[in-house]
Automatic annotation (TrEMBL):
Family: Belongs to the protein disulfide isomerase family.
One Pfam family recorded for the sequence: Thioredoxin
Keyword Hydrolase recorded: no
Catalytically driven reaction(s): Catalyzes the rearrangement of -S-S- bonds in proteins
Signal peptide: 1-23
Protein name, as recorded: protein disulfide-isomerase
GO molecular function, one term: protein disulfide isomerase activity
Enzyme nomenclature, EC number: 5.3.4.1
Amino acid sequence: MSSKTLFAIGALAALLFVSSVFADDVVVLTEDNFEKEVGQDRPALVEFYAPWCGHCKKLAPEYEKLGASFKKAKSVLIAKVDCDEHKSVCGKFGVSGYPTIQWFPKGSLEPKKYEGARTSEALVEYVNKEAGTNVKIAAIPSSVVVLTQDNFDDVVLDKTKDVLVEFYAPWCGHCKSLAPTYEKVAAAFKFDGDVVIANVDADKYKDIAEKYGVSGYPTLKFFPRGNKDGEEYGGGRDLEDFVNFINEKCGTSRDAKGQLTSKAGIVAHLDELVKEFVKAGSEEKKAIVSKIEEEVGKLEGSAARYGKIYVNAAKKSLAKGGDYAKNEIQRLERILEKSVNPTKADEFTLKKNVLYTFSSSS
């Protein structure tokens, strides 16, 4: 099997893993699946939204709570459809403003519009009444570290951490709009121990805000390991903007779903040694393994951890032969196709990425 084929298999497995393990509690509807999901053997509440819509952004965390609450209630579908992407669906149901929320009874594609409050409590109450369920609101754990007067310095000034801080005010509309995106940023990097996504109520802790020159909300400041005075974050406020910023500044390699990318774990100058290793004869390989170990000994932080994966892969390739990398990649792909806890998924993905360098160099 060629390295290109292996890469394609890897990409497919990663996609399947993302969709199965990190799927939202709210079902995403499209032109292709709308009538397969709605109007079937269970009622559905559907939000018709647009990504640029401010009111939709404010609704998002409340609607996500609704989805989480009904996650185990298989008798009701909580769903959403992007009207920018799927205009024909939204047009079919008379949607002209965003967000529009409609209730579809079981077996029917004739909805009635939801006119209630846009809070998780009101939405849950409405669905319970319409569907005859008795679901309680689920508490969604936050990955954002909450800062106070007591812990601000301990968290933010920790020289071993890269920290992004949002200074917000509870009454601030722009802060409320940012909240669901900021939560997703925190969730994406929650398994990177050296990265902290935090916020502080600057209205409550005015002295902290004043110390760091905060006068408007939300203000975002980045406190990298090398500069605890703080740097103003001036990037965009979409999820991808934040993810790209963190990856660039912190040396991480994650996508918007929190999955490691194909670049994760790769150490460029070790890849050059891998190319030599793959082409070398048996005795030369032993010498190159020693070179790899020597170079890894010079590395620090996460690079040192990745380096150990290179050493292990080189030693096993030497002991088990040229097919080791290909066979091990296939084994890891089979594991990742199943439901794997995120920490293990990271571990297997890092190993797989490094093994690809041994496979593609051959």
